[in-house]
Design goal:
Belongs to the FlgI family. Assembles around the rod to form the L-ring and probably protects the motor/basal body from shearing forces during rotation. Helix content is about 20%, strand content about 35%. By secondary structure, it is α+β, with helices and mostly antiparallel strands. It folds into three domains: about 120 residues, no CATH class; about 140 residues, no CATH class; about 70 residues, Alpha-Beta Plaits, CATH 3.30.70. It is flat and about 115 Å long.
């Protein structure tokens, strides 16, 4: 059991050792538009399908426990002109899988994409298997791609009579370039009358700055403003009459802008990782630091009866409890940057888990002027 406290009068800004990630020295960071925003019409579309993996060495579904696998096998053989009337298959070399993929924007028929497969039944491994022809559909029910190919599994497992070793996942894998696109998306890039850019990290300051940078470019190339920030995430660019959308997008996405993010502290209590943003500040606050350790020691004693007393051997409990308190140090920090705070915390030996407790306490006291994100 431990009690952690600290005394701090400081302002928070940036950087901790080991498990704390440093930020940059400036409040704004320069970045290209293509790195902070994406084209609304250029988003991915998710595809899904149901298929079979064959060629497994006895690691497939047991057909009695997974009846849908047997039904799929019979349907596939019937489509191939093979009669399956009568008899029951006991093969364990086949497995039912769910196939997923992301259809990239502006994908054209004939191009290939990667697919991911995952077992649906009680198969123990997909290693060495081959995915047979599987249609992949979008949310609208239309088939956009067909997948087939050898499944690549990174995990492995080994089993003996008395021990089992497994590393990674053996019931999921990938088929690199395993799907061929058969249908293109209905929307055409050059049919649009404007470009809609969406910030990956919504922020009004960044959106306004992006629109200003695009308008500077527009005044130089087209003699007028062409961009408007609609909200914290969306910037709309109107297409000039004589402009080519592809050329316009190529020029705009390489413009350099200054990005800004809200003050935020991200804490992962499982790994002890702390990430503190540049603009994080704390109001004056005073706390103390110390640790309390309680140690419980059990030393039971065996008591023997007297000779010829017809008594019974008994165990007499003996418990010793020691409580020690260490620390109690107080750090008074003056300054407005996080490096000053960190050097003070390190000088009194505060570990990452102690810093997490400190940050949570400061936030509860209302002195942390930032968003605290716990993961």
């Amino acid at each position: 059991m431990a009690r952690r406290l600290i005394a701090v009068v400081a302002a928070l800004a940036l950087s901790l050792p080991l498990n704390l990630t440093l930020g940059v020295d400036t409040a704004f960071a320069a970045a290209r538009i293509k790195d902070v925003a994406s084209l609304q019409s250029g988003r991915d579309n998710q595809l899904i399908g149901y298929g079979l993996v064959v060629g497994l060495q006895g690691t497939g579904d047991s057909l009695r426990s997974s009846p849908f696998t047997e039904q799929s096998l019979r349907a596939m053989l019937q489509n191939l002109g093979i009669s399956t009337q009568g008899g029951e298959s006991r093969s364990k070399n086949i497995a039912a899988v769910l196939v997923t993929a992301n259809l990239p924007p502006f994908a054209s028929p004939g191009s290939r994409i990667d697919v991911t497969v995952g077992s649906l039944g009680d198969s123990t491994s997909l290693r060495g298997g081959t995915l047979v022809m599987t249609s992949l559909s979008g949310a609208d029910g239309q088939i956009y791609a067909v997948a087939q190919g050898s499944v690549v599994v990174t995990g492995f497992s080994a089993e003996g009579d008395a021990a089992t070793l497994q590393q990674g996942i053996t019931t999921a894998g990938r088929v690199p370039n395993g799907a061929i696109i058969e249908r293109e998306l209905p929307a055409k890039f050059k049919d649009g009358v404007n470009l809609v850019l969406q910030l990956r990290n919504p922020d009004f300051s960044t959106a306004v700055g992006m629109a200003a940078a695009i308008n500077r470019y527009g005044r130089g190339q087209f003699g007028g403003q062409i961009a408007e920030a609609r909200d914290s995430q969306t910037v709309v660019i109107d297409k000039p009459k004589m402009a080519d959308l592809a050329r316009l997008m190529a020029d705009v996405e390489n413009l350099v802008i200054e990005t800004d993010v809200p003050a935020r502290v991200v804490v992962n209590e499982r790994t002890g990782t702390i990430v503190i943003g540049q603009d994080v500040q704390i109001s004056p606050v005073a706390v103390s630091f110390g640790t309390l350790t309680v140690q419980v020691t059990e030393t039971p004693t065996v008591v023997q009866p007297e000779p010829f007393s017809r008594g019974e051997t008994a165990v007499e409990p003996n418990t010793r409890i020691d409580a020690t308190e260490a620390g109690g140090k107080v750090a008074i920090l003056n300054g407005s940057n996080l490096r000053t705070l960190v050097s003070g915390l390190n000088s009194i030996g505060v570990k990452p888990d102690g810093i997490i407790s400190i940050l949570q306490g400061i936030k509860s006291a209302g002195a942390l002027q930032a968003e605290l994100v716990l993961q």
